[in-house]
Specification:
The chain contains eleven helices and six strands. By secondary structure, it is α/β, with parallel strands linked by helices.
Length: 242
């Protein structure tokens, strides 16, 4: 019987320690081969297009070129690589937008190594994998049954959602424009539209909104919940200022 070729994996993760851990984890599996690794979205897209791996394991918030924009460009080029995203977020909007952009798998960073291995195997076999911790039934039921009085956050367009995510993570408009391959003026337009829909008119308000909904990974950020907790820390506000 012929030996099966190992699954060729590209790993893109900006944090070196985590990236090395992912490489080591994959290399322990005889069915996997780490073909390439990198730290940003621009490098990941270049590698995917130049020497397509079987599957690319990507951090959702890659620098240089945002991961969802990477997905859009790879899809336009009809790239055969299957994409698995790693994220700390499991909210409905993030999951829906990732799948819309062409992700084949979503793995939560709070999950286990087994989940990651299952995702790589399943998407390579042609399936779609979503972490067991994501409440898929509720997500898609909410998507099918949206009402006129729906949550304003759900009305954000894909671009507005991306701009929101990067703003609350502390990225400036010029950087966001570069990562989405658009002009800073276009980002200003998305930002104004997004703030109007949410009825929030400054970055500090966006950060507080994101924290109360668990929509950000900002470290050390706190919010007032009516039970004596502190307001957003100066560190979080400084990081998010534009």
């Amino acid at each position: 019987m012929l030996d099966r070729k190992p699954i060729r994996v590209l790993i893109a993760e900006p944090q070196q320690l985590l990236r090395e851990a992912l490489v080591a984890l994959c290399e322990r599996n005889p069915d996997l081969e780490v073909a390439d690794q990198c730290a940003d979205g621009a490098a990941a897209l270049r590698l995917i297009l130049q020497r397509p791996p079987d599957v690319a394991l990507l951090e959702l918030d890659l620098p240089e070129l945002h991961t969802l924009e990477l997905l859009n460009q790879a899809r336009e080029q009809h790239c055969p690589t299957r994409i698995v995203l790693m994220t700390a977020r499991s909210d409905r909007k993030t999951v829906i937008e990732a799948l819309r952009c062409g992700a084949h798998g979503i793995v939560l960073k709070s999950g286990s190594a087994r989940h990651l291995m299952d995702a790589l195997q399943q998407v390579t076999s042609g399936g779609v994998y979503i972490s067991p911790a994501v409440e898929v039934d509720k997500i898609f039921a909410a998507h099918r049954n949206r009402k006129e009085n729906e949550d304003p956050f759900e009305t954000l367009s894909a671009r507005e959602h991306q701009v929101f995510t990067m703003l609350v993570e502390g990225h400036r408009a010029k950087e966001i424009a570069a990562r989405l391959a658009v002009s800073p003026k276009t980002i200003d337009t998305y930002r104004a539209s997004m703030m109007r829909k949410l009825d929030i008119h400054d970055v500090a308000g966006l950060v507080k909104f994101a924290i109360t909904r668990n929509l950000t990974s900002l470290p050390g950020a706190e919010y007032s919940n009516g039970h004596g907790s502190a307001a957003i820390t100066p560190h979080a506000l400084a990081k998010a200022a534009s």
